[in-house]
Amino acid sequence: MKRHIPNIFTCGNLFCGCVGIVQVFQNDLISQTNLNFAAYMIGLAAVLDFGDGFAARILKSHSAIGKELDSLADCVTFGVLPGIMLYKLLQRSLMNNDYSLELFIVLPYIAFLITIFSALRLAKFNVDTRQTDSFIGVPTPANALFVGALPLILWQHPQWSTYILNPIVLCGYILIMSFLMTSEIPLFALKFKDFSIANNKVRYLFLLLSLSLIIFLQFAALPLIIVLYILLSLIKF
User: pTM for this structure?
Assistant: First the structure.
């Protein structure tokens, strides 16, 4: 039974992704509530994604099926769902300005570069033996959490919509993050072999700074935490 416990976490991750996708398309394209719910599903899925790896290490129940299932679930939850959310956000950004109908129809599809490069990132991770204790390229959950934070920030700080609901900003983010996910940039993983400060200084610093940002900035902290993660990784390596 214990060898299936990590897979239960993984299936929960996948279920969250499916629910999030349904929520994004549940109502009209300006539904803030449904985007918020989809963002919460990404957050819950990230917890479950961390939980499956943690459970596998504690129970010593790693398996080839578990590894493949994890990637398939991540592709849906951290690849397809963020792509659809960015698609909707791009539609909203174009509605708020005087753009042509052709641009309104065509441009939002650039959001699915995130989905494509997330799939490439996950496939690369599965065959890259260098990524046992660290990552090469930004992990897909980090990108998904960044995207999930956007509608929550819009809800919490509607005055920031001018900056977030800007097609140039959104397209720029999509292109930059697509590159970072498949880049050769080394990043540390939140995997603790032990809990000593000496061996985990960067991890503890990251967690402390992240907690501080969340306390003071709430949802607006999430994009900053992802940027902090990348910067600390560059300094560490």
Answer: 0.92
